[in-house]
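task queued by scheduler; priority normal; single chain, no ligands, no partner chains; default sampling; output format set to structure tokens
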Amino acid sequence: MIEWWHAILFGIVEGVTEFLPISSTGHLTLVEGILGFDVADPSVTAFTAIIQVGAMVAAIIYFWSDIVRFATAWFRGLRIAEHRQDPDYRMGWAIIVGFAITAVIALVFKDLVEGPLRSLWAVVAGLLGWSVVMLAADRLAKVVRDEHSITWRDGAVLGLVQAISLVPGVSRSGATIAGGLFRGLDRVSATRMSFFLGVPTLIASGAFQAVTEAGNIGAPGGVGWAATALGTVVSGVVAYASIAWLLKFVTSHDFTAFIIYRVLLAGVIITLLLTGVIAAV
């Protein structure tokens, strides 16, 4: 049973890590393992997904003016052909296409993601493997474009890349940021795009889990809706501050610090697994 302080702790972990390229799912799985929770328990899996909605609500609030601008331009472009060259119209299509591709892949591989990939060894593989990709993107990608150049093709590519983050440890934001850099976007534009794609993706994921796993959440011995609601609220508050910090950070820094952190975290998890302090699943 998750106590109130567990819910607050998980909410803080989710809020801090959701938008940083260090894997929120990996961190939550690690903390759940350290505290003795069964990470393969459907109730715990649902709890992990649902509290992400708090972080997404924070993103909606933070980027509300952008979201309204994109939506307005998209609907206007549907009605009036001459407005279809508006960068905001193209951004609307990029987000829709990217979200749709990720959603389809997530549904197809749902059982795999919620089963074998919940292992902490999968988290280690995701952390280390994608760190190499992030390093390559940070060092080799050439910045030739900004946010105004984004099209549905970018959305399609980033939707595919975002689906890779279904593997715990990869990091949804880390995947889309690296993908954006390889597409030639500057760091700020790639980071903002990761937020815009993440909003519909994780809200859909949380809503799906809330509907399909409601029985597990509220069942005797389950996480419970009170703890889930508390964790969601805390994650939202913390995530808002995390968003503001990350956008300021990427204006003048590369992603080296995050890459080093990911490798060190993988080392810590490997040590804990090999010494028997925590179980892989």
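post-processing summary
- The radius of gyration is 18 Å.
- The chain has one domain: 4-274.
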